[in-house]
Amino acid sequence: PKVNYLSDYQPPNFAIGSVYLEFDLQPLATRVTNRMLLTRMAAGALHLDGENLQLISVTLDGLEVTNQCLIDENGLQLMTDKDQFELVVVTEIAPQSNTALEGLYRTSNNYCTQCEAEGFRKITYYLDRPDVLSVFTTKIIADKSENRYLLANGNMVESGDLADGKHYAVWLDPHKKPCYLFALVAGNLEKITDTYTTVEGREVRLEIFVEPRNIDKCDHAMQSLKRSMQWDEQRFGLIYDLDIYMIVAVDDFNMGAMENKGLNVFNSKFVLAQPATATDVDYEGIEAVIGHEYFHNWTGNRVTCRDWFQLTLKEGLTVFRDQEFTADMLSPSVKRIEDVKRLRSNQFPEDAGPMAHPIQPQSYIEMNNFYTMTVYEKGAEVVRLYHTLLGESGFQKGMQLYFARHDGQAVTVQDFRQAMADANAVDLAQMHNWYVQSGTPHLQVTAEYYPETKTFTLTCKQSQPQTKDFVPLLLPIGFGMLDQHGQPLILEPTFESAAHVELRSNTHAILRMTQLEQKFTFMDVSSPPVPSLLRGFSAPVKLHFEYSNADLALLAAADEDSFVRWEAMQTLLLRTIQSKVSALQSGSELALSNEVLDVAKALLEDEQLDAALVAMTLSLPELGYIGEQYQEVDVDAIYQAHHWLESQLAHGLQSQWLAAYQRCQNNGPYQYDKIQIAQRMLKNVALSYLGALPENQALVASQYQLQQNMTDVLAALRIMLVHQHAAAQDAMQDFYQRWQEDNLVVDKWFALQAQTQNAQAVETLAVLLQHSDFSLKNPNRVRSLLGVFSRLNLVGFHRADGKGYQMVSEQICLLDALNPQIAARLLAPFTHWKRYDVKRQSLMRAALQEILQREGVSKDVYEIASKSLA
Ligand code: DPP
Ligand code: ZN
């Protein structure tokens, strides 16, 4: 397969001034007539991208030239001397047979599209690249009884009835856009409508379309949309630019959602919610993704990417924006910790594995493989660095200059950096290094206290062992100091250090690191302090500092930064688990230290603390993150150690857990708000510890039976399954009976079982694969069974006999023939084969080889399998 390189970028040799698309929709034979006005920009033949299209005819300025076109599996080539001409291309496609869910396809008898990254070429021949921007008009013709609504981008300018029970609609999108933002939807949907009045006083119609059975689950999505519109006006000064904003929810969707201009298409998982069917996490996810796609209207659509190597330009920035949105809606500290957890559990491993790539990848075989945690989440961390360095007002100045310069253009990450730098009259050239180096940087810090001068010196070193010729990054370190009683110390950098220390308050600073090694010295420190490092997780690095357990206990109890407090406790817990792993491996005994128990107890008994922070601080580190700490992952020992610490904390703090559980009960109606969410979080963490003790089975069962809301129901169910409570199987059956008609809830039912780690995990998977509700054609279902099993069920997936690997890899092969994009995603857990023992390594490698050798392997799967074996 062909490799694409960033360094090969060439501007297009034709521009498309306008395009008029006409769709005559039929499930098996949709006719697409594509009328383009082309203008030559440089010499050469016209090459249009196209895949799996049946060509009917090509007409150039009224003259049929079909026979002069060279067609191959990638597109169509035509020689012409003309500098300006009209080209009409007629093709036929079969949406009903499209199982890859890219291009135009069918879902629940409706038509919908997904064009990013390169799906438009499966609809018609076109210059399918983000730097070709054009004005789109779309005419849709379809059977009226089966397609009540006919939707496309922009504003509807015409509609009416036709003969043979058909009708039509014409949509005009006045904003020039690349074809990846094109969308079309048709079908018998229902909608809820609302309006939003912009700060300029313009009224925008808001419409959410869903399948009729889901019409009562759209309110939260609509509220989220209105909050997003208002927040973007208030925080970024960005106002919506069309008269209508439409969202369509579909059940079969490869991604979370898609920001098509004026017509977002969403995975129904990120639209539908009611307290009885959706958890707090689902509610938060909906608000965040609705926000994310809405925010793309400016960061992505109005200013788009020059090429796909710039994907992080729009995704890193838009993820940063949606993170800030959620932080402002709920709790900034809780959101920050959630994002750091996600980054560490999912992006750090990616950056340490064979698919590691910089946030601006330098090459790809299949672009769909680069919609990654690195491009999105690490990309957002890099945008956050600008924000940390420049502050909110400096960052906003940079955004304003970015829009002033680039509105309506397709640009690069350099253009973004230049706008940030110029608006603030600072040099940000070193930020470039974050875009081109892969791997998680290490930040090694040592500290020295000098009693005679009362000074305290930090020596900071940055490195990236896997990166050849690592060049230093511009790295802001959030910093403060505590005395031995936990009191904050006033920061007074020496004259030399002051140039690199930005004081944000008396007790909080940003250390601006630019070299491989750098010292920062503070004066008037009367006794050895405890440094609080990387406050707010100010850079996406692995921090190494030799804290004593007592230091960690102090930070956990007293630091002013909630991330550092959380991190200190998590480190204590992690150390405890690691000691237990060693004890298990050497066959020795280990008792839980009082230190851990005392800090945990104090946190739990302090009713003044934010319940959500307490809940997160006392949750055990995830298995994946624990595994990350080891060169070779001992699956069984880690699992056992984790289990052991859970029951130790359950026993040691039983009365405190019970008190917290009761304190957080709320019998009022479900509300999606900060306080209730925090209460449920702590309540359910408490219940999960209590549920580890057999005497609390009834308590867990009663929470299930109360059926108060999905958050509580699912928490109880998970605890019953994990600890094999007597009532677990009946409850699972009851749950299925109640919800078997609701796809999103059935996904939860599959996921719960897929993640339950026990000796029968593989047999459970085998049974579920045969279940009548399982289907490889629905990406959500695949993710909730196979994705969850292979990522989270360490015990099952890595079972020593290789059955777990085998079962998943067989499904990947079957799936690759239907939907390569989702098949490739499922490979991720296999790519980390080097982290396991020799026997598991060879089993995992063999699975990868088999997948790679499959006849007709897709380039999606080929790229990931071959890179991980290399
Ligand atoms: N729909 C995906 C997202 O919004 C790709 N653009 O991130
Ligand atoms: Zn996005």
TrEMBL record:
Residues 221-433 form the Peptidase M1 membrane alanine aminopeptidase domain. Its EC number is 3.4.11.2. Keywords: Aminopeptidase, Hydrolase, Metal-binding, Metalloprotease, Protease, Zinc. Residues 439-545 form the Peptidase M1 alanyl aminopeptidase Ig-like fold domain. GO terms for molecular function: alanyl aminopeptidase activity; metallopeptidase activity; zinc ion binding. The keyword ATP-binding does not apply. Residues 550-870 form the Peptidase M1 alanyl aminopeptidase C-terminal domain. Pfam families: DUF3458 (PF11940), DUF3458_C (PF17432), Peptidase_M1 (PF01433), Peptidase_M1_N (PF17900). NCBIfam families: pepN_proteo. Belongs to the peptidase M1 family. This is Aminopeptidase N. It comes from Thiosulfatimonas sediminis. The gene is pepN.
